[in-house]
């Protein structure tokens, strides 16, 4: 029988510089996983692109250089193996974001959930890719995720990990996905009780996105997305940042763990490596799912057709 109550560690990490060897970064992650386990955590959640700098900020033309940011084939082998070994040795699973290059040449912004036996339980590939395919002229930092990655092709598959470990229904999102309520709802319609989301969100969005999107507003949007979607889907939500100054560009921090009422259980205070802990009881999701958000009694799918039949807004005349 698995557990419904467990200690979770949200492992915020400070910037990873382009020049840092991956082996060094993996050692840093191992140390943080070991510290999480020392403090009783059963699961440690790392952010999006936890092995490298956030390379979509640059226009890189050299294919070998692009490839150096990706992990090819089986993620449990190669440079990340020490983290898998640590998970098994310490009985502490993890969620890890990385750039995936498949054996047949496809590229995704991916994360995996690895259990306490060091086994990959589930993979998720980012569905909502922000930014552009082509660089924007006249700005210092690009957002070229649409150039380097393909759209995730796995949908939003909720999953139960190894039932000898945590007995709950989980889902994963990556960064920009957290801003799209549809993604959360598709998971919630599969009974999701906890959602993991890693992010790399640049602090200054005023040049490329919206002139009000300074660091403070971006932090607010990040919190708001996590809290509101946790509440409306009656699930725990764990949003974890790669943050601080990375290759001269600032990323927001503010990692947080939210309960099914949308209330913050823990939030990061620093802009660097910091582990947040929360005692999760998955049964706390039950009341919301049986009352306010009892989908089977209250949802009106017959009125929601536009959600799937239409992509962009079509303003009325
Ligand atoms: N990495 C990532 O997805 N970043 C985006 C920045 C786009 S700005 C709205 C994010 O949604 O945080």
How many strand units? 13
What is the CATH-assigned architecture?
4-Layer Sandwich
Category by helix and strand content = alpha/beta
Bound molecules: 4-methylsulfanyl-2-ureido-butyric acid
The total of helices stands at: 9
Number of individual domains = 1
CATH superfamily: Carbon-nitrogen hydrolase
| CATH class (first level) name | Alpha Beta
Roughly what fraction of the amino acids lie in strands? Answer: 15-25%
How large is the radius of gyration?
A: 19 Å
- What's the CATH topology label? Nitrilase/N-carbamoyl-D-aminoacid amidohydrolase
Biggest pleated-sheet summary: 13 strands, mixed
H/E element string? EHEHEHEEEHEHEHEEEEEHHH
Overall geometric form: globular
Low-confidence stretches: none
Distance separating the two termini: 58 Å
Report the mean per-residue pLDDT as an integer: 97
In quaternary terms, these chains amount to: single chain
The residue fraction in helices comes out at: 10-25%
Protein name: Omega-amidase Nit3p
Organism: [Candida] jaroonii
Salient structural properties:
single chain; Nitrilase/N-carbamoyl-D-aminoacid amidohydrolase; 13-stranded mixed beta sheet
Give the gist of this structure.
With 317 residues, the protein is of the alpha/beta class. Helices cover 24% and strands 25% of the residues. Strand 4 (93-101) and strand 5 (107-114) form a beta hairpin.
